Each structure stands twice: as structure tokens, then as C-alpha cells.
């Protein structure tokens, strides 16, 4: 595929959708100290995008408002620790999509919008990308996407299946529908039950890449799906999640090793 003709998305000077896929490292610390410690280690890795898994932060705070306050308080030290070059993706993965805690649609919208609009006048936003599960309440999803647009923050539209792999037509439809909803980077993460399911995911990824409508992410989870994480470039996925220390999903490989594999497998 000729790279020049693909649309891309740029966050903090990092262009997604052209050339070697980006490595995204999830930060899974339960409190500020382990969060910053993991961020520090991730800075020494080849990852240019770090994903803060908000649902894993402060599990002791059951109340959504108290949790939101703790997140907003931790944002500034985390941003400072990351420096100017690393992009920050914020993700609250609810239990319905494999995350660690439930959250109502309303509270999810309030949390994400507080993170999006939290920038002080004249400063660059602390957050560069926001993840939203597109199956959530329509008006909440639309409102988060609109707020992100207004603040120049890229939207990752998310779909997870921890039980299986939908058929190829459905995967393609999901990715296209996320883009049509306003996601800059549609994303699907599904679970293979056979090697053929991995092929299904890769084939759907390639089909959507050939649309040339912008970057997307397609992941087959678990050890069976690991090929999809390192063969991202050949099959058109713009980024791949990899771990530094503790990971956030089955099948994630170490960031250093993934960087080496991405280089070895460059088409
Ligand atoms: O959506 C994704 C992808 C992921 O589930 C994975 O399989 O690597 C890991 C999550 O942290 C992230 O939000």
C-alpha cells in the first residue's frame, strides 16, 4: 500500500498511520507512586504513547466522584513525569469491556470530559488521546467526541470481545462505524478461539486499511493472537499495545521485544 495516500492522525508530533506502528504502553498503577514509577520505566522503553488505565487507579475509591477527583489530581504529576514528547492516552475500561470496575454512562462522560477540558488557558492539553467505548450511551459518546474535537484531542473508539472473534464483515463494520461516529482511531480487540480467528482479525484490519480513511487499531488478544501485535504494520494496524512491567490485557508482549519484532517484520 502506498503510504503517501493513507490518512494519518498526529498527536504531540507523533503521526499514527504511516510507517512503523506506534507502541502504546499501559500504565496500570493503583496509586500515584506506582503509577509514576511505571511511567518512569516506560520512558526508557521505545513507546511514544502511554495509556493511563483509569479503571485500575485507586480501586479503594468506590465513589465515582471521589475517584474522578483523585484522577484529576494525579493528572498533573503524571503529565510532568512524561515530559513534552510522550503522548498520553486516557482509558476507563468498564467491566463490560474487560476493565476492572463498573461506571455508569453519566459518570464515564463526566470523567472523560473533565480530563479533556482540564487544560489551563493557553497551555497544551495534558491529555492527547481519549478512549471511548462506542457501545456506551449514544449521547454520552457523542458529547465526549465533541468535547475532544473542541480541545484538539484525538479519539480512540473502542470495542472489546473477550469471548470470541466476530466474523470479518462484522469487524469491518465495527471499525467503519466507529470512524463514522467521529473516532480518529477506531479500535477492536477480540479473542481468538482458533488460529483462523487471528486470520479473520488480520483480514478485517487489512480491508479497513485499504479504505485509506485513517489509522485504526486491530488486536487479537491472548497468546494465540500475539502475531497480530507484532505483524501490525503488514496488516495495517497503526499501533500495538505492549507492556513495561505489568500489562493490561492477555497476550501483551514486552515493549522492547515488540519494538525489535516490528523492525524485523517491516514489510
Ligand atoms: O484496548 C486496549 C487494548 C488492550 O485490550 C490489549 O489487548 O492490548 C489493552 C488495553 O489496555 C487497551 O485499552
Automatic annotation (TrEMBL):
EC number in record: 4.2.1.10
Active-site residues, Swiss-Prot/TrEMBL: 160 (proton donor/acceptor), 187 (schiff-base intermediate with substrate)
GO MF annotation, one: 3-dehydroquinate dehydratase activity
CDD domains: DHQase_I
Classification via SUPFAM superfamilies: Aldolase
Family to which the UniProt record says this protein belongs: Belongs to the type-I 3-dehydroquinase family.
Entries under PANTHER family matching the protein: 3-DEHYDROQUINATE DEHYDRATASE (PTHR43699:SF1)
Protein name: 3-dehydroquinate dehydratase
Species of origin: Brachybacterium aquaticum
Record gene name: aroD
Amino acid at each position: 500500500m502506498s503510504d503517501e495516500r493513507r490518512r494519518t492522525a498526529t498527536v504531540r508530533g507523533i503521526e499514527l498511520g504511516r510507517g512503523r506502528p506506534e507502541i502504546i504502553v499501559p500504565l496500570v498503577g493503583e496509586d500515584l507512586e506506582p503509577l509514576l514509577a511505571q511511567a518512569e520505566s516506560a520512558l526508557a522503553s521505545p513507546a511514544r504513547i502511554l495509556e493511563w488505565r483509569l479503571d485500575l487507579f485507586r480501586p479503594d475509591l468506590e465513589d465515582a466522584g471521589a475517584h474522578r477527583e483523585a484522577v484529576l489530581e494525579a493528572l498533573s504529576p503524571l503529565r510532568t513525569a512524561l515530559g513534552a514528547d510522550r503522548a498520553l492516552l486516557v482509558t476507563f475500561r468498564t467491566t463490560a469491556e474487560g476493565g476492572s470496575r463498573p461506571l455508569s454512562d453519566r459518570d464515564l462522560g463526566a470523567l472523560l470530559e473533565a480530563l479533556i477540558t482540564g487544560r489551563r488557558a493557553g497551555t497544551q492539553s495534558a491529555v492527547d488521546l481519549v478512549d471511548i467505548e462506542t457501545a456506551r450511551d449514544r449521547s454520552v459518546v457523542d458529547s465526549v467526541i465533541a468535547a475532544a474535537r473542541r480541545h484538539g484531542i484525538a479519539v480512540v473508539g473502542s470495542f472489546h470481545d473477550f469471548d470470541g472473534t466476530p466474523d470479518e464483515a462484522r469487524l469491518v463494520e465495527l471499525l467503519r462505524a466507529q470512524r463514522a461516529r467521529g473516532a480518529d482511531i477506531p479500535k477492536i480487540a477480540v479473542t481468538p478461539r482458533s488460529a483462523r480467528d487471528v486470520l479473520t482479525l488480520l483480514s478485517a484490519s487489512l480491508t479497513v486499511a485499504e479504505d485509506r480513511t485513517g489509522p485504526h487499531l486491530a488486536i487479537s488478544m491472548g497468546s494465540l493472537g500475539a502475531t497480530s501485535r507484532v505483524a501490525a504494520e503488514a496488516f495495517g494496524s497503526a499501533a500495538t499495545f505492549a507492556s513495561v512491567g505489568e500489562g493490561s490485557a492477555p497476550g501483551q508482549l514486552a515493549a522492547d521485544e515488540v519494538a525489535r519484532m516490528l523492525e524485523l517484520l517491516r514489510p
